[in-house]
Fold:
Amino acid sequence: MTTPTLSIRNLHKSFADNEVLKGIDLEAHKGDVISILGASGSGKSTLLRCVNLLETPTSGDILVNGELIEMKQDKKRGAIPVSIKQVERIRSRLAMVFQGFNLWSHLSVIENVIEAPVHVLGIPKKEAIVKAEALLQRVGLYERKDYYPGQLSGGQQQRVAIARALAVEPEVMLFDEPTSALDPELVGEVLTVMRDLAEEGRTMLVVTHEMAFARDVSNKVLFLHQGMVEEQGKPEVIFENPSSERFKQFISTVY
Amino acid sequence: MFDLYGYQEIFLEGAWLTLQVALLSLVLAVVLGLVAALAKLSHSTILTSVATVYTTIIRGIPDLILMLLIFFGGQMLINDMSYKFNEWLNEVMTGYYPDHEWVSYLPDYIDVSPYFAGIVTIGFIFGAYMAETFRGAILSVDKGQLEAATAYGMNKYKRFFRVMFPQMMRHALPGLGNNWLVLLKTTALVSIIGLQDMVKIAGDASGSTQKPFTFYLFVALVFLFYTAISTSALKWAERKYSIQTR
Structure:
């Protein structure tokens, strides 16, 4: 058995008295594309945000390439990481693509893409620019490299955000509803880029409402309901033969 | 145009001094304002209270009174501390060498220069106003911008200097510009603690020539000149930074 790129064991997360995640297990191997589905409030975004500790899990283990993110209990703040340095290092290996793009609005497109490689990973600027230009070419936005995010459409911004994520050569790419904030006619261009990434063997965790993407592109689907995994498996299996009544309902309402 | 009765050169020096005091105070005020704004927004109750006391006191007392208090009070405080330090060091020395004689290691009387006092006072006053401007600016930066910085592994210093600072300055610019104009005009107050700025020179010159209107009008025009340049510079800066937000 190879070491999973990412494993999550018995993950719990509470906000005050509200338990949002009630013990999630998840394993992603290299090249896995895992879609996480669920109604709003099911905890799917929280799960994704726990992976890179944008939200601190209340309990449970997260391992990246077999390395455990060490946590300890603090009297006042509950569970906190033992070493923020370790967390920052692991975060720099996990790129996230946000629902609201979150491109740095004071930086041009190319500056957005080289920011983390240069200022977090310490790659020489010249080298980073060459690579960033290639990535922008790939997402079809090389001509816009000197624009600012505010001058681009939502779909274009999200493609830049994907280039920014690719620039750090991440172990796992985390997509948090990447198409939910887009106008319908712009969804396609982002999904096309994501399909390409899946095909070239990137490890991806995708929180999404795009059923077609979950069914056709991912090799594993996780359906969350009220903070628990209600249904999981290969898409061709669970979409055809859902064992859970709730998942059946969910598919029928979304389609 | 203006007959300054031979005071041209000294006026030029005074005008330059005014500008120096203003610019150096601005630097101090920006630094203090940033620190106070961050303290106000921190989770530490101690830091928040210290910053709140600072801004409340400063903003609640007239600038003129504050200037006199800090100038005279600062003078007393520094001399008191200098004396205490001498006393302490002499006692220590006597402990080691019984036949040690009293030496003033620090001067017995330190004369605080009005130049220095003026800059510190104005910087201190405007730091409190800047704190409010910066606090608002920090709060108006989109949370997602910092979240992205966190997600890409930046530590808290990089998050601040590479994302928060450049973005908050965009929101702070109008308030900052306003504060700068008021600060520039407040430098007129340093004449009361004896600094040879334009206003002081105008006072002296009108005393000896009996032409107060001429001199004060000249001072007014120089201030107007400074503020007009500042206003256009600010407009330019705001335009430059707003391109990126569309």
